[in-house]
From TrEMBL:
Official protein name in the record: Beta-phosphoglucomutase
InterPro entries: B-phosphoglucomutase_hydrolase (IPR010976), Beta-PGM (IPR010972), Beta-PGM-like (IPR051600), HAD-like_sf (IPR036412), HAD-SF_hydro_IA (IPR006439), HAD_sf (IPR023214), PGP-like_dom2 (IPR023198)
Keywords for this protein: Carbohydrate metabolism, Isomerase, Magnesium, Metal-binding, Phosphoprotein
EC category: isomerase
A Pfam short name: Hydrolase
Catalytic activity: beta-D-glucose 1-phosphate = beta-D-glucose 6-phosphate
Keyword presence, DNA repair: no
SUPFAM superfamilies tied to this protein: HAD-like
Names of required cofactors: Mg(2+)
Length: 220
């Protein structure tokens, strides 16, 4: 029986992925590195410092900066990102999300955020969705996706057995994390991108997604 639904944030609840891309692109250009949307796909779900490492490797600059300089680069990116978030409003939640969260609440199924983002509480507040979630798993101090830790921490917060949980993700690393946690994995996006990472079910969008459909797909 279903005990919790764990939601990724960026790319599942709202399209902050586009703001991450703008902010990383700007930071990278500042140090002479060009990133395109295909490369950006490999950053989705990856935490801040790991994303920076990938960008530096992509630009053959992995040896160039000290730890302190890397922290400054990551800080500059985050400042730009947080500035872009100022325009975020409740209508920016993806189609179907509010309705699905309400249905979960009505049926007593806990909804939990399992995001790599340290900005998750800020984003949920801007979307006025904080109260829709029973818990937000803190990404501090645990290995990032594709490690299962953030999903296991999220399940633990509501006392759910991972094998009775459904995880919803937009990123390859996130799907791998859900599967490694032993949960049923729903991918939101393209089968071509999410299929190979092991998603159990891939949907083009959460528009119209219901609890009943989730239960049928996961055989719960
Ligand atoms: P922050 P998710 C992830 O969120 C993003 O997909 C990824 O692009 C970002 O670098 C990461 O959060 C860290 O975010 O810099 O705000 O701490 O998809 O796991 O919800
Ligand atoms: Mg995501």
């Amino acid at each position: 029986k279903l005990q919790a639904v764990l939601f990724d944030l960026d790319g599942v609840i709202t399209d902050t992925a586009k703001y991450h891309f703008i902010a990383w692109k700007q930071m990278a250009e500042g140090i002479g590195i060009t990133i395109d949307s295909e490369f950006n796909e490999s950053l989705k779900g990856i935490d801040r410092m790991q994303s920076l490492e990938r960008i530096l490797i992509h630009g053959h600059q992995e040896q160039r900066y000290s730890q302190a300089e890397k922290e400054q680069l990551a800080q500059a990116k985050n400042d730009e990102y947080v500035a872009l978030l100022a325009s975020l409003a409740p209508e920016d939640a993806y189609p179907g999300i509010k309705e699905l969260l309400q249905e979960l609440k009505d049926n007593g199924v806990p909804a939990v955020i399992a995001s790599a983002s340290k900005n998750a509480p800020l984003i949920l507040d801007a979307l006025q969705l904080t109260d829709a979630f029973q818990a937000i798993a803190d990404p501090q101090g645990i290995p990032g996706k594709p490690a299962p830790d953030i999903f296991l921490r999220g399940a633990g917060l509501v006392g759910a057995d991972p094998s009775c949980c459904i995880g919803i993700e937009d990123a390859q690393a996130g799907i791998e994390a859900i599967k490694a946690a032993g949960m049923y994995a729903v991918g939101v996006g393209e089968q071509r991108i999410l299929g190979p990472s092991g998603a159990d079910w891939v949907l083009p969008s959460t528009s119209g997604l219901t609890l009943r459909q989730l239960l049928a797909a996961a055989h719960m």
